[in-house]
Design brief:
The protein contains 18 helices and 17 strands. It is α/β, with parallel strands linked by helices and about 450 residues long. It has 2 domains: about 170 residues, Urease, subunit C, domain 1 (Roll), CATH 2.30.40; about 250 residues, TIM Barrel (Alpha-Beta Barrel), CATH 3.20.20. The strands form 3 sheets. The protein has a 9-stranded mixed β-sheet with strand order 3-2-1-4-13-14-15-17-16. The protein has a 5-stranded parallel β-sheet with strand order 8-9-10-11-12. A hairpin with a 2-residue loop joins strand 16 and strand 17. Helix 4 packs across helix 18. The longest helix is centred in the first third of the chain and has 17 residues. It is globular, with a radius of gyration of 21 Å. The protein starts with a helix and ends in a 12-residue tail after the last helix. It binds zinc ion (ZN). Zinc ion binds next to loops.
């Protein structure tokens, strides 16, 4: 091998601690939530980063480490709508409802709390921000995410393969950090369209890209600018079976009928919608038109810190405004199987099935009612998160049982939680201290790593 070849190999080994790992075999006992059935006291066997079997009896797997629990085993969440670089900012509560997303983005209060501090932070502290926000997702059970944006002239090779980033690095298609098969376009206003990839409509049609995620109709139903966006999406040729419409607050039943005909998915982020506009998408109309609905947190400042918190909020809206339209199981699927199908990665993640990657989490809760337990949970109840068969966080005892040597203990929602610092490429306390100091210099503070109630 040439010297350059060795350099690339070494760089990759450093750059992808989790997703390039060749993890040891393990068998984990718990209540296993599979697409077809819940298996109490079942076993998940994992080798070379993949699930090799799910059985009622303990499997024989040579040299496997054994973790026996009474916890619930869920597939890792797939988050199709987030702005992770902004998840270092504390909750921002607007003083009034806005008509559309363009209004608050120009509001002095928003500029002061988030946009202005962010300008120097994003390029100056990219790797620390990336580690902090990926851990924030992982500690709440999300293993696949989207939306890290590349600040100008910033080296992003530290998107290290901790969580899977669908638009930058998943570990599915080699070791290179760079654009992958999910395309993120902010919206359909002229400034957004200007930065969209050339011939996007054509590449969606041909399948050169797997998914376009795009903000559409994010604002109040009475707002003409918000209402006009769906027609613009159609006009661009971007309403396809490879399109995920984010928010869709102002969409009508007729719009949802067109989405169903095209095979597009709705990504629902109720908390951020209610916070900014006091309205959310009419998911009853979307469901009536058989549109696939995924759930996602949007971002920490006005949405949720992670999927667990967004699930709790979605349950409230579901039980209130939508009169219990969706079951607890359906809400869980909106955060796992549906987004995985939408991103065309359901042959890789999004469910517990033999052959899929071992991206999963364990939850401490009532195993007799696993979906209800999920909707009540906080990050302190997540007892283990695996990506690619590598334990990245969880109870210290579990990590040690699974052979993790480098551990950082921390307190999360009154629970003792540990982080695999080799997998994380660093220490959360030190990362938080550096970010906190830099944010203080910008006149703001660092967001908590989790919401607890
Ligand atoms: Zn958004």
């Amino acid at each position: 091998m040439t010297r350059a070849g060795w350099a690339i190999l070494l760089l990759c080994a450093w750059a992808a601690p989790v997703l390039a790992a060749a993890p040891t075999a393990m068998v984990i006992k718990g209540t296993v939530v599979t697409p077809d059935a819940v298996i109490p006291g079942g076993w998940v066997a994992i080798d070379h980063g993949k699930i090799i079997s799910i059985t009622a009896a303990k499997p024989a797997l040579a040299a496997a480490r054994t973790l026996e629990t009474t916890d619930i085993i869920f597939p890792g969440f797939v988050d199709l709508h987030n702005h992770p670089l902004y998840n270092i900012y504390p909750r921002w509560t607007p003083s009034h409802a806005y008509h559309n997303r363009y209004e608050w983005r120009g509001d002095e209060a928003y500029l002061k709390a988030i946009a202005n501090p962010h300008r120097p932070m994003a390029p100056g502290h990219f790797c620390d921000i990336d580690r902090f926000v990926e851990l924030k997702e992982l500690l709440g059970g999300t293993t696949t995410m989207v939306g890290i944006s590349q600040p100008r002239d910033t080296d992003i090779s530290c998107i290290a393969g901790l969580a899977r980033n669908l638009d930058w690095f998943t570990g599915f298609y080699g070791a290179k950090v760079g654009p992958e098969r999910v395309v993120n376009v902010l919206g359909v206003q002229p400034d957004d369209v200007k930065y969209a990839p050339a011939s996007l409509a054509e590449s969606l049609k041909k399948g050169d890209a797997d998914l376009l995620v795009i903000h559409i109709a994010e604002g109040q139903r009475s707002d003409p600018k918000t209402r006009a966006e769906f027609a613009e999406l159609e006009k661009q040729g971007w309403l396809t079976s490879r399109t995920a419409v984010i928010h869709g607050v102002a969409l009508t039943r007729a719009d949802f009928a067109k989405m169903h005909a095209a095979g597009a998915t709705l990504v629902w982020s109720p908390r951020s919608n209610m916070e900014l506009y006091k309205e959310t998408a009419n998911v009853a109309d979307a469901a009536a038109e058989k549109v696939a609905i995924a759930l996602a947190p949007d971002w920490s400042p006005t949405g949720s810190t992670n999927m667990l918190a967004e699930l709790k909020f979605a349950k409230q809206v579901n039980d209130g405004q939508f009169k219990g339209l969706f079951t607890a199981k359906q809400l869980f699927e909106m955060a796992s199987a549906v987004p995985a199908r939408t991103a065309r990665i359901d042959d890789k993640v999004g469910a517990l099935k033999p052959g899929l990657y071992a991206d999963l989490f364990l939850l401490h809760g009532d195993a007799a009612a696993p979906y209800d337990a999920l909707l009540k949970a906080s990050p302190g109840d997540v007892t283990l998160t695996l990506v690619n068969g590598v334990p990245v966080s969880g109870q210290g005892g579990y990590l040690k049982t699974l052979g993790v040597a480098q551990i950082e203990e921390t307190t999360l929602c009154k629970a003792q939680v540990a982080i695999n610092t080799a997998a994380a490429g660093g220490n959360l306390a030190e990362t938080s201290a550096r970010l906190g100091k830099a944010l203080t210099e910008q006149g703001v503070s660092l967001a908590p790593v989790a919401e607890c109630d």
